[in-house]
Amino acid sequence: xxxxxxxxxxxxxxxxxxxxxxxxxxxxxxxxxxxxxxxxxxxxxxxxxxxxxxxxxxxxxxxxxxxxxxxxxxxxxxxxxxxxxxxxxxxxxxxxxxxxxxxxxxxxxxxxxxxxxxxxxxxxxxxxxxxxxxxxxxxxxxxxxxxxxxxxxxxxxxxxxxxxxxxxxxxxxxxxxxxxxxxxxxxx
Amino acid sequence: xxxxxxxxxxxxxxxxxxxxxxxxxxxxxxxxxxxxxxxxxxxxxxxxxxxxxxxxxxxxxxxxxxxxxxxxxxxxxxxxxxxxxxxxxxxxxxxxxxxxxxxxxxxxxxxxxxxxxxxxxxxxxxxxxxxxxxxxxxxxxxxxxxxxxxxxxxxxxxxxxxxxxxxxxxxxxxxxxxxxxxxxxxxxxxxxxxxxxxxxxxxxxxxxxxxxxxxxxxxxxxxxxxxxxxxxxxxxxxxxxxxxxxxxxxxxxxxxxxxxxxxxxxxxxxxxxxxxxxxxxxxxxxxxxxxxxxxxxxxxxxxxxxxxxxxxxxxxxxxxxxxxxxxxxxxxxxxxxxxxxxxxxxxxxxxxxxxxxxxxxxxxxxxxxxxxxxxxxxxxxxxx
Lengths: 188, 384
Known about the structure:
The structure holds 2 protein chains of 2 kinds. Chain A is α/β, with parallel strands linked by helices. Chain A is built from 6 helices and 6 strands; from the N terminus they run E-H-E-E-E-H-E-E-H-H-H-H. Chain A has helices spanning 19-32, 79-85, 115-122, 129-141, 146-156, 162-182, and strands at 6-14, 36-42, 51-59, 71-76, 89-98, 111-113. In chain A, strand 2 and strand 3 form a beta hairpin. In chain A, helix 1 crosses helix 4 and helix 4 (129-141) runs parallel beside helix 6 (162-182). The longest helix of chain A is centred in the last third of the chain and has 21 residues, at 162-182. Chain A is globular. Chain A starts with 5 loop residues before the first strand and ends in a 6-residue tail after the last helix. By secondary structure, chain B is an alpha/beta fold. In chain B, strands 2, 3, 4, 5, 6, 7, 8 and 13 form an 8-stranded mixed sheet that branches. In chain B, strand 4, helix 4 (81-97) and strand 5 (101-109) form a beta-alpha-beta unit. In chain B, helix 1 (10-20) packs across helix 2, helix 3 (58-70) packs parallel to helix 4 and helix 10 (285-299) packs across helix 13 (367-374). Chain B is globular and about 70 Å long. Classes of the chains: A alpha/beta, B alpha/beta. Strand 2 of chain A pairs antiparallel with strand 9 of chain B.
C-alpha cells in the first residue's frame, strides 16, 4: 500500500477505555520513526463514561492545523462513540470497529473485530481493549512498524502492566494479520 | 541523547521549562486544563530540592508564591479561568510590591465554570486588566509545545529582569496538545536571576530605582529588613499616601520599567508577511490554524501572510505598526469576540482594514473560517 504524506487518525470510545492513551502511544511511535506528530483529544468533564475521542496526525512535514480534518483511519469501540465521532471520514478511509458497534455503513465496508471480547475473554482483562485495538489498527493499516509501536508501548504504560499490554498488542496485531491473509483491508 | 526528539504535552513542556529556568517553588490548586503542570512538578520539584505546596485555594496559592519569591525563590503557580479570577487581587499586590513570579493560565471556556475541557482565548484582556489600578503587565502566549518550553523560560527571565509577575497564557488546545519537541537548542539559553543589592543592609533602600528600571531585590532572611506593602510607598518601602510626588514616581515607574523595554520584551514569528496583501495576526492555538489557512490561501493565489505574536502584553505597538503598514487588510482570528483585534485596531493606519474573525464554541479555531472570509462567506467576521 502506498503511504500518503500524512495520516489523520481518529480513535473513539467510552471515557475510561483508554483511547487517549492509545492515541499517545501512536504519536509516540510516530515520533520514534522521526515523523512529525500531533495528538489532541476531546472529552467531557466526567472521569468515566461519555464518548471520548483522541486524534493523531502523523506526517512527513510539519503540521499546522492541529486537529483531524478528514480521517484516514477511524476507530470506534462503542456505538455511542461511533455515532458521535464518525464524521469527515472520506472515501478510501479505513473504519475499524468492535464487532458489537452498530454502524450505518454496510457491514462489508467496515473492518469489524472482536476487540473487547478478545481483551475480556482471551486476555482476561477488558481494560486492555485499547491496546488490542491499537494492534489491529497498526497491522491493518501498516502506518507504523510493529517494533516502534512496541517500543512506544513500553515508554507509555506502567512497567508492571507491560507484559499484559504487550500480549494485548500482539493479539490485536495477529487479528489484523490473520484478516489480511484472507482478504484485503476494507475501505469506504 | 539531548538531541533526541521527544513527544511532549504542552503542560509538561511548561513544567520542564520552569525547571530549566530555575524554579524553586510551586504553590497551586489543581484545575482543568492546567492540572498536569502541578502534577508533574509535585513529582519532580522536591527531588531537585524545590518545594511544592498544594494550597487550600487559588488565593492562598498566589499569596504563597509571593512569599516564596520574597525569600529569593523563583516561584510559579498554574491555574485556569476561575482560579485566574481569584488570583487577581494578589496579582496586583505582586505588581505593586515588585515581586517576580510566573502565573500560568491555561485558558478554558468561560465565564464562570464554563467548559473545563473546552478551548478558548477569552482571558486576553483579563491578563491585561484583571487586577485594578494603573499598571503594566507582561503576558506571553505560545502556539506549540516547543514554544511553551521556550516562553516559560522567557517568562521567568522577564519576571526576574523586571521584578514583576509575568503571565503565561496557554489555551486548552496547547496545554493538552502532544507533539514532537527538540529541546537541546535551548540548552544554552541565558537564565536571568534578579539582581541583589550591593549596599549593606543599613544603607538598603528597597524601592530606590531609575525611572524605568526595577530596584535590586534583597532576600528575606539575609539581614536586609524592609517593609513590603500594597499601599503606595516611597523608596524606603513604607507607605507614603500623603506624598504625591512619591506616588507619581512609583506609579509611573511601575509602568515605565516595562513599557520602556518594549523592544526587549516583544517576541514574535512571521511567515510570508513581506509581500502579503492580507496580514493575519494570531496567537496561541489559533495561530496554527492561521498558518494552515495562509498556505491554502497562497495556493489559491491570495497573498496572505502570518504574524504570530508571542508577546501579547506589553502590546507590541511598534511591531504591529511596522508589519501592518501598507497592508490591504489585517485579519485577527481569535477564540473570543475580538479582544486583541480591537487593540490592534487602535494602532493600525485607517487605510488598512482590521477584521475580527471569531470562534467561541469551545472548539479549535478552524482554518476554513479564514478561507471563507476571503470568499465573502464567513458570518463571524466583523470589520472594525
